[in-house]
Amino acid sequence: MTMTVKLINPFPDLTVKELLEDKLLIPRKTRHFLRTKKHLLINDQTVHWQHLVKIGDAIELIFDEEDYPQKIIPFGDKSLVEACYQDDHLIIVNKPEGMKTHANQPGEMALLNHVSAYVGQTCYVVHRLDKETSGLILFAKNPFILPILNQLLEKRQMSRQYWALVTGQFPHKNLTYRDKIGRDRHDRRKRLVDPRKGQDAVTHIKRLKPYQNTSLINCQLETGRTHQIRVHLAHHGFALIGDPLYHDKPDLRLMLHAHQLSLTHPLTLEKIQVKAKSTSFEQRLAQEKS
């Protein structure tokens, strides 16, 4: 399968070599194929690797099966997808609670399968949400953009904000948790605060509204550890309402919703900010207001 990527260079003047290595993160082997097959065009012309690419130049990259082997996954149900933003390279969707981000067993259907059906081609997970969590997730539409988006995530250049309803009166207007998080040796499903062996984890919290026995807060992730928000809050005595792992009382749903996702598009430098609501989150929250 041939894949053609076209873009207008948004970066200050740089060489073809710098563009491919530093900005587009194209692997060495693939760069070699682009060069030998003459599959790189600047303003419809083949150029040498030290050619200076200027802002506004038209870039065309042609990839084939040798560059990115085709990956096939079963298509799901496109009607289950609520797309909030998309372009030729990426798509941001609003995941309902109770749906897995990706399948864990053969034949299992998850959001990735539904998004792939919606787009009409295999997509790729950039980051995940727990099955019980609703909200915004970013997917790559092709294998070319995937490592570029992954780098944004690794360099903490993507902002993810969550609404959370927690047990008790949250006493701080603003607070940051920096407890390291590791695996729970006694329960493989769970994570816990582990100062010695845990990984760095940073969660910024802002109190939004106190209720009689609960508090609505906003959580902004600086890192993305498994169950990070859930573990940080439960460890400090503010377990999420409805959390099946870290709260001892059942509820309608886990009250955690990824309501905002912000990033700078790595191929256009466009500022993207997407917001989304959850009907079930709002319905459960309304019980606290009554």
From TrEMBL:
Record EC number: 5.4.99.-
GO molecular function terms attached to this record: catalytic activity, acting on RNA; pseudouridine synthase activity; RNA binding
GO biological process, one term: enzyme-directed rRNA pseudouridine synthesis
Gene3D superfamilies: Pseudouridine synthase
Database matches in PROSITE patterns: PSI_RLU (PS01129)
Enzyme class: isomerase
Superkingdom, natural source: Bacteria
Catalysed reactions, as listed in the record: a uridine in RNA = a pseudouridine in RNA
Boundaries of every Pseudouridine synthase RsuA/RluA-like domain copy: 89-235
Similarity-based family: Belongs to the pseudouridine synthase RluA family.
Known function: Responsible for synthesis of pseudouridine from uracil.
Protein name: Pseudouridine synthase
Native organism: Streptococcus cuniculipharyngis
